[in-house]
């Protein structure tokens, strides 16, 4: 998978070159290109934003800068993703779908966002998705990109050492993952549940399912299947 990220703070994206994502890049499973939007500015101040039509707070990012940038970095067969609090929710299902893409380009907006015509113009040529990672407002899209890239790339075969681990993710069966334990069997007077210390895998699977349902009922009743 090829990943392109456009930002006015490309160094903000350096964490993606570390740890497991960094290894996926080193092993050629993922190629990461980061671009500085200011390289597409054409004035001495390298301006990327301007005041909004119709008034309102903050600044809007200029179409005359974003347009030429996306023309250069986002080919027709790529998926263009624009992180925004006004986007469609990003979920594990989104990550699953994106993990099968060949090329994803992320456009990180800051200030009050990007002039809508940039997205409308790009949509004539490429598939565009405006997505949100949650109901809160970040300063820019970079942190959202790191989160979404991590959720997506970890699903690509070969990235996680133990392939089955993402099959047992939270959300992979639609429920929250239950509690996990490791040695010692007793720690500060707290015991690992007996069923997990035994060898009855069928009982352990049943216990895990019950724990998932209980946790989902308590924390995310919206995820419960209708009959539960
Ligand atoms: N929540 C967000 N706030 C700012 C930019 C992007 C965002 N998002 O969720 O993708």
UniProtKB/TrEMBL annotation:
What broad class of enzyme is this? transferase
Q: What is its EC number?
A: 2.1.1.228
Residues recorded as binding S-adenosyl-L-methionine, renumbered to this chain, are 109, 133-138
Q: Where is the composition biased (Basic and acidic residues)?
A: 197-222
What are the UniProt keywords, alphabetically?
A: Cytoplasm, Methyltransferase, S-adenosyl-L-methionine, Transferase, tRNA processing
GO MF annotation, one: tRNA (guanine(37)-N1)-methyltransferase activity
InterPro entries reported in the protein's UniProt record: Alpha/beta_knot_MTases, tRNA_m1G_MeTrfase_C_sf, tRNA_m1G_MeTrfase_TrmD, tRNA_m1G_MTases_N, tRNA_MeTrfase_TRMD/TRM10
Matches recorded under Pfam families: tRNA_m1G_MT
Ranges for region Disordered:
197-228
Which positions fall inside the tRNA methyltransferase TRMD/TRM10-type domain?
1-224
Q: Which GO terms describe its biological process?
A: methylation
Q: What is its main location?
A: cytoplasm
- Which compartments is it annotated to reside in? Cytoplasm
Q: SUPFAM superfamilies from the xrefs?
A: alpha/beta knot
Please give the catalytic activity noted in the UniProt record: guanosine(37) in tRNA + S-adenosyl-L-methionine = N(1)-methylguanosine(37) in tRNA + S-adenosyl-L-homocysteine + H(+)
Q: How does it assemble?
A: Homodimer.
Family membership noted in the UniProt record: Belongs to the RNA methyltransferase TrmD family.
Q: Report the HAMAP family cross-referenced here.
A: TrmD
> What biological function has been recorded for the protein in this entry?
Specifically methylates guanosine-37 in various tRNAs.
- Recorded protein name is tRNA (guanine-N(1)-)-methyltransferase
Q: Which organism is it from?
A: Williamsia marianensis
